[in-house]
Every structure is written in structure tokens, then in C-alpha cells.
Amino acid sequence: MWIAEVNSVKVVYGKNSLSYLNQLGLNEITIVVSRSLLNSQLLKSIENYVKIKKIVQGPSPHVPEEELNVLIRELSGESNVISLGGGSVIDAVKLAFSGYHIAIPTTFSGAEYTYNASFKNKDGSKVSRRVKNPDVIILDPKVLEYTPKSLLISTAVKALDHAVEAYYSVKASPFTDVLSTQGINMMLKCLENNLDDLEFCQIGSWISSYARKFAGMGLSHSFGHVFGPKFNIPHGITSCISLPEAIRFNKAEKLLSMYPNLDIRIENILNSLGINERLSKYAKFENILELLPKFVEAVNSSANPKKITLEDAKMFINNIY
């Protein structure tokens, strides 16, 4: 177990990191947990380290607004809360609770590292808010053993997406480039031949998320933010659908000089792991076209290295459909 502290956020990582809960001296704590983990052995194992006051079921993916409002009421008056789950559960607690927050992520999506969190409003649109980071993030590889492999794979691609888009971002700097390249290298290794080394992949996701935190996001993330909530596409899957095509569209020399044919390399990874999905699985083409102006606006207000027109956007969608 190691501990790093950045901007008052303590990241506890490595084997047996869950035992850090013992050191916090918390008498009772409320835990918000992903639905799939409600009856898991993982939840029971956490009780070895801290007394659980109340267990609250976490929200659906993309945090629907009505479920967020329920969670706000559930956490009213609480002093200490653990979020145990993927990005939606962690984002929901960040939005609903401003007290002492311990995040225990069960995927590689990286929501625990950002000052922003989002929910889906009644129109199916993503709404982002500035929020407080968790006070403590616990990265224990043992936790990921309870996560379906398909979810680990898709969120590992999301982490790779963070690093790639940070590297070709217009806000990139020598500092973020170090994080981005290390994140790309680690997440490629994780996906190609090292997914069983969960600790390695967790650290790669952490580094990639910090690259994104300081350098911003681009085309691929804009796609996920606009179309993911509207059509209920899981966070990781949006990156699986959009990242190779975003690399082709941007043609960023900085990226391709270091990682030639990265788009094809990622597609080969997706094919070999059985998650090379298409947008057509989730939405009708005519419904997607209605969101093109919003997509263009999102891309052109992001840190993407290349501006996009409506015609570009339609071609992009056509290529991933």
C-alpha cells in the first residue's frame, strides 16, 4: 500500500489498500453502492474495516436526474460516505454530498479524479456541475475482481481515450505530455496483454485521468457526452465506438508520429476482445442526426485540435454507425 496526496485528495493505492479504512477512525459510515454489488462479497469484506451505518443503492448509468434527487435526500444529514462502484455511482455521490467522501472505484473510468460530475436531465441531456473531489480515493486491485471483464475492458478503453485526447489537446503542455504518453503506454499494455494485472491498469487509468484533468478533452469525449446519456450508451462503450474514428479525423501529427496507426491498433484490440461495437446498436440514424448541431458545438468548445463542421459531424457519425 502507498499513499499520494494531490490538491488535498489522498490516493491510497496498491494491494491491501482497503485496509486504510481502518486507519480513518470512522465509527459509522453510509455506503452508496452499484446495484450489481449490493449482495456481493466485496460489500461484506468492507465491513471488516468499517462499521456500515446504511447501504444505499446507487443510480442507473449516466445518473438520471430523478434518481439523483432521491440520493440527495438519502444522504441528507450524513457526515461520511463511501461510493463503491463505477463512474456513475461516484459522480452521483459527488453531486449529492459535500461531506467527507471516500471513493472506491470498481472500473477504470476515472470519475473519482475530477472536479466535475454530470447527470442526465429529463430530456436525456448531460448536465455538468463543478463539485468537490472525493477526500480519499482507494485503488485496491482486489476490488476489481468483482467487476465483469467486459466492463473492465470498455472502461480501460475509456482511460486510453483520456490519455490520447489529452495528448493531442490544444491545452497540452510538457507536463501533461508526460502523463499522456505514460497513460497511453500503460493502457495499451493493459489492453493488449496485461489486463490481469489489475494494479498496473488502475495506475495507468489514474495517470490518464490526470492528463485529461489538466489538458481537457476532445472529439471522442464530446461524442460520449452528447450521445451517451441520450441513447443510454455505457460510458466505456462510447469510447470504444468513437476513439479510432476521432484519431482518424484529427490526424494529429504529434500523436501519430509517436503512435503510428494507433487507430488500427485500437480497432485490433477491440476486435480481439470482442467489443468492437457500432452506434447503430443504440440509436436510429435519423435520431442521431437531430443532435448534430449540439455535437458540433460540444466539439468546437472543447480542447480538440481541429474544428468540426456539420458536414464533418455527419461523416463522422456515418463512419461509426
Tell me about this structure.
The chain is an alpha/beta fold and 321 residues long. The chain has two domains: 144 residues, Rossmann fold (3-Layer(aba) Sandwich); 172 residues, Dehydroquinate synthase-like - alpha domain (Dehydroquinate synthase-like, alpha domain, Up-down Bundle). The chain contains 13 helices and nine strands. The strands form two sheets. A seven-stranded mixed beta sheet has the order 1-2-9-6-5-3-4. The protein has a two-stranded antiparallel ribbon with strand order 7-8. Helix 3 links the parallel strand 5 and strand 6. Helix 4 packs parallel to helix 6 and helix 8 packs antiparallel against helix 10. The relative contact order is 0.11.
Count of DSSP-assigned helices: 13
Strand order of the largest sheet: 1-2-9-6-5-3-4
* CATH-assigned homologous superfamily of the largest domain: Dehydroquinate synthase-like - alpha domain
Contiguous runs where pLDDT drops below 50 for at least 5 residues: none
> Percent of residues in beta strands?
5-15%
Summed over residues and divided by their number, the pLDDT gives a mean of: 95
CATH C-level of the largest domain: Mainly Alpha
Note the main sheet: 7 strands, mixed
- Alpha-carbon distance between the two ends: 44 Å
* Rg computed from alpha carbons, rounded to a whole number of angstroms: 19 Å
Structural class: alpha/beta
The arrangement of helices and strands along the chain is EEEHEHEHEEEEHHHHHHHHHH
Measured as a percent range, the helix fraction is: 40-55%
